[in-house]
């Protein structure tokens, strides 16, 4: 009964969010037009209610997390520090039928990031179709949630650049997401997983900027307990949303250009030891970029206290020797389920703002993060 009541409350809150804050305010302050939300919730939760309400409430799951930073940087002698609300994300899953589901995700510190629907075609998990705006499948890391990553700054330099997470000015800040359609599934008792996506290639919350589509393929194989092997590839054509990319100065805003990528990586998880790594290669127009990384954690106290380390290499333009080496070392403490405190030191051998300059000057960072999550 408590679970049902909580789900009813969640349903009411979700309905209020979706109907808009102005409607909420008008209803809440006008006592003559009806009961307020605070008056309605006890009436709903203290009664059995109609069967349809209980059914709808049982099909909705609400999730959310927040990550707050303290950030210090010394980049080529230029020092800065700030507090930062990095992410405040809410998402809802709605199970419409046993085959059909919907997800909506919003980051309150930035923009709406995901909205898509899934339909399972087969009786098992062999084939599901997805349509909407969602994570692209390129690289091992990109589909992963920031709440499960070892490093505070989340993805490796290569993954961030090649998947459209933000460091490629030609592609803009897309958070590793795009609009399109995907087919995916699992076979052989989850040993094999595949995904095939056809995407706009332009990013989130915008229409396609050219007549080409990006095709992304992903294949995962789990040969042993805890071990996952992953290969991904992308063939596409980008349309430069922003000019002045220091790594690729020949491409100007509005130009269409070849944008191909491929990666191969692995992940191993155990009670005391987690590690994953990947090799990445990309082509943008006439420029080739490539790199590799290895990231892991060792649990001194399982599910409580971890040592985190990462080595990351990426060359943004192999013809111009625009290589960046990054080393991360730190600690994290899990104080409640998926909630943790992290502190990390980050060293880079280069300083860049991605648009106008790239210098081989040392960059030192100290990042602290508090993460809270419910689901």
Describe this structure in words.
- This protein is mainly beta and 375 residues long.
- It has 2 domains: 1-58, no CATH class; 64-88 and 119-374, Beta Barrel (Porin), CATH 2.40.160.10.
- The chain has helices at 2-19, 21-29, 37-45, 51-58, 157-162, and strands spanning 60-75, 78-95, 100-107, 112-120, 128-135, 177-187, 192-199, 214-224, 227-235, 237-239, 256-269, 273-284, 287-301, 305-315, 323-336, 339-348, 351-352, 358-359, 363-374.
- Strand 13 (287-301) and strand 14 (305-315) form a beta hairpin.
- Helix 1 crosses helix 2, helix 1 packs antiparallel against helix 3 and helix 1 packs across helix 4.
- It is globular, with a radius of gyration of 23 Å.
Helix content: 10-25%
Count of DSSP-assigned helices: 5
Secondary structure: number of strands: 19
CATH architectural name of the largest domain:
Beta Barrel
Quote the average pLDDT.
88
């Amino acid at each position: 009964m408590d679970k049902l009541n909580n789900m009813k409350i969640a349903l009411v809150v979700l309905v209020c969010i979706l109907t808009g804050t102005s409607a909420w305010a008008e209803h809440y302050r006008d006592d003559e037009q009806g009961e307020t939300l605070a008056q309605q919730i006890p009436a709903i939760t203290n009664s059995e209610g109609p069967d349809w309400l209980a059914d709808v409430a049982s099909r909705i799951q609400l999730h959310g997390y927040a990550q707050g930073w303290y950030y210090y940087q010394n980049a080529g002698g230029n020092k800065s520090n700030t507090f930062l609300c990095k992410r405040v994300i809410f998402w809802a899953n709605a199970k419409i039928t046993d085959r059909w589901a919907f997800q909506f995700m919003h980051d309150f510190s930035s923009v709406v990031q995901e909205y898509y629907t899934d339909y399972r075609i087969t009786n098992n998990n062999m084939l599901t179709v997805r349509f909407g705006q969602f994570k692209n499948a390129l690289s091992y890391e990109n589909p992963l949630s920031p709440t499960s990553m070892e490093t505070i700054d989340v993805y490796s330099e290569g993954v961030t650049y090649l998947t459209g997470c933000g460091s490629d000015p030609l592609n803009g800040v897309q958070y590793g997401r795009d609009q399109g359609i995907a087919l995916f599934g699992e076979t052989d008792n989850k040993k094999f997983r595949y995904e095939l996506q056809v995407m706009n290639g332009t990013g989130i919350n915008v229409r396609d900027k050219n007549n080409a589509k990006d095709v992304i393929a992903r294949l995962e194989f789990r040969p042993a307990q805890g071990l996952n092997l992953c290969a991904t590839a992308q063939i596409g054509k980008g349309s430069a949303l922003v000019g002045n990319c220091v790594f690729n100065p020949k491409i100007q805003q509005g130009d269409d250009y070849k944008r191909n990528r491929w990666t191969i990586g692995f992940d191993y998880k155990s009670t005391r030891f987690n590690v994953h790594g990947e090799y990445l290669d990309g082509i943008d127009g006439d420029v080739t970029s490539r790199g590799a990384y290895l990231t892991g954690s060792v649990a001194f106290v399982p599910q409580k206290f971890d040592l985190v380390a990462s080595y990351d290499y990426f060359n943004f333009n192999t013809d111009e020797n625009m290589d960046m080496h990054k080393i991360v070392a730190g600690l994290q403490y899990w104080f409640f389920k998926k909630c943790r405190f992290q502190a990390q030191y980050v060293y880079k051998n280069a300083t860049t703002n991605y648009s106008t300059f790239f210098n081989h000057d040392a960059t030192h960072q100290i990042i602290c993060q508090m993460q809270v999550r419910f689901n």
